[in-house]
Amino acid sequence: MYLRHPTGRSGLHLQCDYFIRHNSQAGFTLIELMIASLILVIGVVSVMSMVLFALSANYTSKIESTALRLTQQKLEELKSLPVDDSKLIGPGNPLDSENNIDFNASPDPFYSSSTLMTLSKFKKTSISFETRWNIGAAGAQKVITVATRNTAGTPYPLKPVSLKVVKAP
Fold this sequence. Notes:
The chain is an alpha+beta fold. The chain is 37% helix and 24% strand. The protein is built from 2 helices and 4 strands; from the N terminus they run H-H-E-E-E-E. Strand 2 (125-138) and strand 3 (141-150) form a beta hairpin. The chain is rod-shaped.
């Protein structure tokens, strides 16, 4: 038994008409494609911004950890000296109002050093650090303040890494 279409068509024609009408509605419209593309672009841009932020944070972390390591090295070197050593006599670099090394003042050549660290041998990139220290006296004790900063500059300025220790005789 065949289905009859009101126009008199047979079942086979009826099925073809159904598929033609149904298939003409299949697929995506231009608006749907534009919305899907917009969502995809927003997702890609979001992921890329997170990657760039992570790279920037990683770079900043490397700079700060290198400055801390250089500060610790100099502090350990000065701590290992006897209290009456000539390197522990002078005041060294001036301190600011918060008793941190004042990097705005000109450096004392006997109480400062510079270090050049290689970031990439292939790209021949390096970064420069300046370490300054101050020797203060508190009775027979010495207060050693050491600070290191990046002198090459970064996209945003970083505070110098500063450490203090009291050395007793």
